[in-house]
Amino acid sequence: MNAKDVASIEQATLAAVAPDTVEQREGWLLPVDHGTIGRARSAVPLQHTEADPGVLGRIEAYYAARGLPAVFRLATDVCFDGLRHELRRGGYSADKPTLVQLGTVARMREVSSQASAEVHAAPDAAWTALFLGEGFDPVDGACRVRALGRAQGSVYASVREGGEVLAGGVAAFSHGWVSVHGMRTVAGHRGRGLARQVLAGLADAALARGMVRVLQVEAGNTTAQALYQRAGFDTAWSYVYWRRA
């Protein structure tokens, strides 16, 4: 990955979850949001290069002024060894390892031979209900619906039966990337290939826009990781969140 790609991936990832505000300072993106999505409220560097540890205190002050604790989202690259050392000294610990995975829209489209999911320009009540149903945290679900629903230019895919959305997902188009987020399948309907249909529908929407590169992030879900591997995604890097207990 070159430096320009790393920066555009981080910018596209944030654009998809639409934090309340985001500023760029000293080579970092500083999103502010009072919801539950970690990426929407954690500081992330735009480059995978050695950084001045002194920036950590300034970022802490930035978030404190906005009534939030500082959270740092750092790739596991060796270039951040100095920052990790300072974070541990400051009482931070790492959690929620997450993969940044990249692929091509064409390969993602090939993941399903079934009819692709419906795709709409805005979420409706049935799509929203998927995030609030049994088996999902309703508070987190409501926050995700709010964030994903206000991202500019996103599209919303769904597989429906009898008016109920059984599987859904979102594609955001930003900074040269298609970013896939919000993949959900109703528990009683997993294993039917519905998520593959959702990916195919999102790929159709991306191809119609002439987009060729796709990214997604995934934390600790082996079933989802198997799906993305089948769809041609490869891991570019991993990151963890650093926060105080």
Distance between the termini: 33 Å
In the residues, how many domains can be counted?
Answer: 2
CATH architecture designation of the largest domain: 3-Layer(aba) Sandwich
Query: Could you give the order of the helices and strands?
Result: HEEEHEHEHEHHEEEHEHE
Helix count?
A: 8
Q: In angstroms, what is the radius of gyration? A: 18 Å
Strand content: 25-35%
CATH fold annotation of the largest domain: Aminopeptidase
| Model regions low in confidence, pLDDT < 50 over at least 5 residues | none
The structural class is alpha+beta
Reading side by side through the largest sheet, how are the strands ordered?
4-11-5-10-9-8-7-6
Could you give me the name of the CATH homologous superfamily of the largest domain?
Answer: Gcn5-related N-acetyltransferase (GNAT)
What percentage of residues falls in helices of 4 or more residues?
Answer: 25-40%
How many E strands?
11
pLDDT average, as an integer? Answer: 95
Instruction: Report the biggest beta sheet as strand number plus sense, adding barrel if it closes.
Output: 8 strands, mixed
Shape field: globular
State the name of the first-level CATH class of the largest domain.
Alpha Beta
